[in-house]
Amino acid sequence: INQHVLVQQQRRALSQIPRGGADLLGPEALAAGEHTGGLRKIVLDSYMPTGFDVMGMLDHAKEFDDDNDESLKKSPTLHMNGSMIAFPTSCFLWDVAGPKDVTLESLSMILLRAPPVEFLFIGCNHPLPPRELNKIRREMKEKGIVVEQLDLTNAMGTFNILNGEDRRVAAALVLDKTE
């Protein structure tokens, strides 16, 4: 299969995504798609030189029901200090210091995920070494995972959109410590 056919298949697959939408942090988010197991989906909110802000990882609203302080009832933001790998309902710190550290081995967590991931977005503001990126794409493709490298902002946004559409998605976000 040549590259043009693959691109056409991916476009066709993405165009078949059901339209609609959901508030990922709203009350109905807990009753979301089957593959989340009733867990609230996360939202990758922002990033800064120290790490990433993730909404939906912590939910203390029930804990403070009797309290009058409305600010405590909002879904809090968790700051992840460093690079991370995000799945629809969870995220984990990831021990990479820059693009050169992103390898198939460092991404092995993606292959262990159940249900399996459909899309992996590697977010980094600097390009990954081409040989390693091609190796990652080739190996992940054999497992049915589409891999794309994007800058951090686009990787986070694309993850949020596909997560909102109940796609099995992951984002590997690299904070380059050399910047």
UniProtKB/TrEMBL annotation:
Signal peptide: none annotated. InterPro entries: MTH938-like_sf, NDUFAF3/AAMDC. It comes from Minutocellus polymorphus. Transmembrane segments: none annotated. It holds the Pfam family DUF498. This is NADH dehydrogenase [ubiquinone] 1 alpha subcomplex assembly factor 3. The lineage of its organism: Eukaryota, Sar, Stramenopiles, Ochrophyta, Bacillariophyta. It comes from the Eukaryota. GO terms for biological process: mitochondrial respiratory chain complex I assembly. GO terms for cellular component: mitochondrial inner membrane.
